Amino acid sequence: MPIGVVESLDHEARGVTRLEGKTVFVDGALPGERVEYASYRRKPSYELAHLVAVHSASASRVPQLCEHFGICGGCAMQHLEPSAQLAVKQRILEDSLRHIGRVRPERILPPIHGAPWGYRRRARFGVRKIPARGGMLVGFHEWRSSYIADMRSCAVLPPHVSALLLPLRELFGGMSMADRIPQLEVAIGEQCTALVLRILAPLNSRDEALLRAFADRHGVVFYLQPKGPDSAYRFHPVPGPRLYYTLPEFGLELEFRPTDFTQVNHAMNRVLVRRALSLLDPRPGERIADMFCGLGNFTLPIARSGAVVLGVEGSGALVQRALASAKANGLADNARFTVANLFACTAESIGALGHFDKMLIDPPREGAIELVKAFGRQGPRRIVYVSCNPATLARDAAVLVSISGYRFAAAGVVNMFPHTSHVESIAIFERP
Fold it and tell me: Of 72, 293, 345, 388, which one is the catalytic site residue?
């Protein structure tokens, strides 16, 4: 079997080495290591390979905490020391900006990071009835596979949720429609753990009784989802703790539905909001836009500063919940919301919203290309861009710098998802 020296990690946390001029991506290998590998897919310009043996280990290699690491696809970097994970993500961000956008920030922001374990407040598990493997499986998909991992615990989930994995398998295995439950979604609030059960057929009375007993015994709330995410409804217990998260620094409480988008890592979200507000520096009397505002995660802190803020979001349901949170937090006078498709916006549609002194942009992975193209030379004087995809951030930054004339003042990473290859980042653009 071939042996190579690993140069770096790619955006999926695979080790990169070379063989006779061909790039080889080795699962589980780390930079600086001399590794033996076996290729499982060969293409003309690259190969994909499994790690067979480490002949010279990196000083940053650590024992993985989770017994399922390497099989479960939920994590990709548990074998890499957390500070080294940050360095890898910073390099991926800078490489994306340089190679895709041909841009470079004037300043690199200090990375934002926090507790590496027990942080995950949202998760979506597959549920499968597999008699040959002991009945039911509840877990993430296996690494690069459509199969469900045989998970008995999960170190990135809060301990009380990790402890539910085996009881849930037993619960679903005892239900009459065990083969009609494809998915379980977990959403954790300050005082409520919600379990959203995707069901492909109505429950019978015995199945309903099993769910009620499980919820009462384990202190969770079951939601049932017969169709799309908006069809989810609270099943049991109906009265009880609300699902919400807090931003204590700003005195805010935001209620959400379990299928709404919220950040996976609540502790890191608090730090991210603080950093974003510090960079944006909203002042009383300013008019600010929060694009792709969702539930108002940034809108309401901006409004708390005394600025007048307009939250813009494509989902009318999310806008209604954001507006309700603004009212509940006493911010209805400073926080306004409107529904607009920002993936199809134009200079005219953005101009119709009025003048903005500053803007925060927090798009999904697709980025905000139509929005940034709409600015021309008339955009706000400062933009804070929160990104979950370095490639689309780089693409959009190129437009802001080369076409709209912004200075690329700073950028840095946010380790929202420790042990995964996911790179969250924040950037600031300013008019000269």
Answer: 388
Selection from 305, 289, 287 nearest residue 251 by Cα = 305
For residues 224 and 245, give the distance between their C-alpha atoms in angstroms, rounded to a whole number.
Answer: 21
State the residue range of the domain holding 199: 122-188+193-236
Q: Of the candidates 257, 265, 270, which has an alpha carbon nearest to the alpha carbon of residue 223? A: 257
The number of folded domains in the chain is: 3
Q: Tens digit of pLDDT for each residue in 238-259? A: 999 999 999 999 999 999 999 9
Residues 208 and 318 in one domain: no
Q: Which residues contact 232 (CB under 8 A, 6 or more apart)?
A: 196, 223, 224, 225, 257, 258, 259
Q: Taking 70 as the threshold, does the pLDDT of residue 232 lie above it?
A: yes
Q: Is 192 a catalytic residue?
A: no
Considering the domain architecture, whether residues 127 and 229 belong to the same structural domain is answered as yes
Looking at the whole model, is its pTM more than 0.85? yes
pLDDT tens profile 330-344? 999 999 999 999 999
- 111 and 126 in a single domain? The answer is no
Look at phi and psi of residue 9 and say left if phi exceeds 0, alpha if psi is from -120 to 50, else beta. beta
